[in-house]
Amino acid sequence: MQDGVMREWLESSHLAGGNAAYVEELFEAYLDDPTAVSDEWRQMFDALPRDGHTLDTKHSQIREQFREFAKNKLKASNATAAAPDLKQVRVLQLINAYRFRGHQHANLDPLGLWKQETVPDLALDFHELSKDDLDREFNVGSLAVGKDTMKLRDIHDALEKIYCGSIGAEYMHIVSTEEKRWIQQRLEGVLGRPSFDKAQKQRIFNELVAADGLEKYLGSKFPGAKRFSLEGGDSLVPLLKSLISRSGEQGAKEVVIGMAHRGRLNVLVNVLGKKPQDLFDEFAGKHAANKGSGDVKYHMGFSSDFATPNGNVHLALAFNPSHLEIVNPVVMGSVRARMDRLQDSTGSKVLPITIHGDAAIAGQGVVQETFNMSKTRAYQVGGSIRIVINNQVGFTTSKREDARSTQYCTDIAKMVQAPIFHVNADDPEAVVFVTQLALDYRNTFKRDVMIDLVCYRRHGHNEADEPSATQPLMYSKVKKHPVPREIYAKRLQEENLLDEEQAKQRVSDYRDALDKGEVVVEEYRPMKAHSVDWSPYIGNDWDVAYDHKVDAKRLRELGEKICQYPESHKLQSRVAKVYQERLKMAKGDKPMDWGFAETLAYATLVTQGTHIRLTGQDSGRGTFFHRHAVLHNQKDASTYMPLNHLSDDQEQIEIYDSVLSEAAVVAFEYGYATAEPKSLVMWEAQFGDFANGAQVVIDQFLSSGEQKWGRLCGLTMLLPHGYEGQGPEHSSARLERFLQLSADHNWSVCVPTTPGQVFHMIRRQQLRPVRRPLIVMTPKSLLRHPMAVSEMDELADSGFQNAIGEIDSLDPKKVKRVVFCSGKVYYDLLSARREREQEDVALVRIEQLYPFPTEEVAEIMKDYQHVKDFVWCQEEPQNQGAWYSSQHHFWAAIPAGAQLSYRGRQASAAPAVGYLSEHNQQQKQLVDEALTIE
């Protein structure tokens, strides 16, 4: 603001002289928070000249200028601010202080163990207000209590009820003034406590009866058995049922829930409608005689329909291993798939709910990754409801200084400006109110929101623990503390809404219902058929027939179309050259390379009606500059995807450069693939070893989800792998780990060596009616290797070859050694053998290491039954790669009496050496040893 303008403004009538200090105080409050002043003052400050800048960008400068002018005017007039005006400012500051820090004085802990620091900002005297001011009338500013003025006594009482009762609201960290005002209106308008009618209160009580009743029933029927009891956090049941019902009222068709162990059995029975008898059978060790390893009962998922005032809502509880928070991005992926299927771009029809533990949400990094994804193009789901069952102890760690470095376990949510509502779980009406508020916020602003359900756990980490050994003070209180059902029953009795006999009868009725073993959820409805049908993919073997052929003319047409883009879309020179070369490949003037064959595979699928989703940290162009499916205009940075402009009736391919994450991103794509069998879902690592960051997802979901939970998943992982002298970190995709986990035909592990092979492999993954993961060791140098090329005919006529025999015209009778290999090393062996003009060593490529192609290799071996010397050659160190995990397959494939030996790098702790010269020497040596017959 210019000095002259400021002076003129200050000297105007009602702002001059003794009022300047008052105005300065208002302006200070306005700069800190525009909602802290009345609408009249806010409009005046909004109208101030900015000198080309916004107030936000020059806060400190404007503040100092204002303060200096105000001081000068005060000196000139020798006046002081009028007392009532200054007091008014102090009252507005008090209101603002409660909005910022009232949660720190809220009554949140049912056990009364939290020792919150005293917040001086919330005291009257901090704001130079006293008891003498209590009966004075003040303007309430933007305090949404339905009055313009109130006595200070009433203002203070309202603030205590709103911000320091059973709800502690944190929302002033949100940048959006609109969102903050929305929350203020909802909280302040009811003084932090809504009014529920008799029927609603009775329903809440019945849900607490159910939550408590199931735990007591299980405790008496199966004493000492692990169940990860909900006791202490019983309000989760009315919370979830209210959330689901209200979401249905507002148009939701599906709800996907992810949670770890605590309270899971209770949610299964009392929310989703699992039959108690089925749960009891699991406790007793009974199970269906079906295939698979199964899993413990508190990892199991469930699906059902739930009746709401606006129709049934489909519920899905995700299966979850013991890695707690890893299920959250899985839920988000499942939700995104359902949104895409329902053509729901905003998330209005599908609601994600994730339930966390207080120790886990603060302690596990995948939480941050998932929050970071929440507003990105590839991973947004219109906001999620995140609930923390905050029992104030993780395993045996309860001291805050040991469990986290922040005041609250939920502080991580502030990174995405999610509002956080802490609520005392012993006040179920406050819990339900906060739940409704959270859902309405999510549906209004399409953002994440957090509910911190502050409670306790009545037993140890599991029912066999003795918690008082490590938490003596906490559990001395827990033992004396009444359960939420008892607390709420007493409250309803005081309101004459329930008598003691009725309360006892409800408990008895619920226990009788459990004895019958049938569904105890009133809203439960038998699940109807939904929009996705998995039946075509169930029970099929790997070798099930499918139509892999593509008309050669059609291939050429598509090949030319994927090379077309608008003339106005100017390409970078190297990219333009790639497309010029691809056009030659499409016309048959040049053999096709890897990038062209891969893109052509996508083109055939989308024009056949397959939706494709490909994500990764550099997937648009490809880490090694080979794909260029997304073209960037060099003039205006706009993008164009030829694959989405092939025909009017085609499906779409989505290709996103992902956030810099592996664990959450791979979990998201797994979740997507488990919810949508008709889409080809692919994740590409920037380098194969980046999959290390997603090892939990690979171990506990991808490799074993079908065996444990019967969950089919067709996710494809593209992992660049190959020894190019780039050092230990970017050579190996850890092939050995995937092969070690290979069993029960749980997935396929492929190492394709030609463009034609990758074309057929991608198509096979989608067209074959099998939905199991595909792990691909993709190449780096082979993307442009002059020998790694294919002709158009190879794409049209043949399918994927699991094993490829000798391609040179060697006389099989002269062969003395057969070398098995996979991947890039094949071309090193082939080049060296041709250079030597050697005819006594045959090369056999294993393109699919798992399931091992026994029949195909046996067919190749018919020419070599006389050979006694067989070699497995690999680039990886001996303790890595395929040797240790797969040699039993190689032994079984060779003739009786023959010998099998290893040729490759020596065993090593690191995947590769870090020096190029040493790498080259090792590579030459292993090739020489593989080809040299002693």
TrEMBL record:
One of its GO terms (molecular function) is thiamine pyrophosphate binding. SUPFAM superfamilies: Thiamin diphosphate-binding fold (THDP-binding). Its EC number is 1.2.4.2. The keyword Zinc does not apply. It is an enzyme of class 1 (oxidoreductase). CDD domains: TPP_E1_OGDC_like (cd02016). Its cofactor is thiamine diphosphate. Residues 592-785 form the Transketolase-like pyrimidine-binding domain. GO terms for cellular component: cytosol; oxoglutarate dehydrogenase complex. SMART domains: Transket_pyr. InterPro entries: 2-oxogl_dehyd_N (IPR032106), 2oxoglutarate_DH_E1 (IPR011603), DH_E1 (IPR001017), KGD_C_sf (IPR042179), ODO-1/KGD_C (IPR031717), THDP-binding (IPR029061), Transketolase-like_Pyr-bd (IPR005475). Keywords: Oxidoreductase, Thiamine pyrophosphate. The keyword Oxidoreductase applies. Signal peptide: none annotated. Pfam families: 2-oxogl_dehyd_N, E1_dh, OxoGdeHyase_C, Transket_pyr. GO terms for biological process: tricarboxylic acid cycle. Belongs to the alpha-ketoglutarate dehydrogenase family. NCBIfam families: 2oxo_dh_E1, PRK09404.1, PRK12270.1. E1 component of the 2-oxoglutarate dehydrogenase (OGDH) complex which catalyzes the decarboxylation of 2-oxoglutarate, the first step in the conversion of 2-oxoglutarate to succinyl-CoA and CO(2). This is 2-oxoglutarate dehydrogenase E1 component. It comes from Idiomarina tyrosinivorans. The lineage of its organism: Bacteria, Pseudomonadati, Pseudomonadota, Gammaproteobacteria, Alteromonadales.
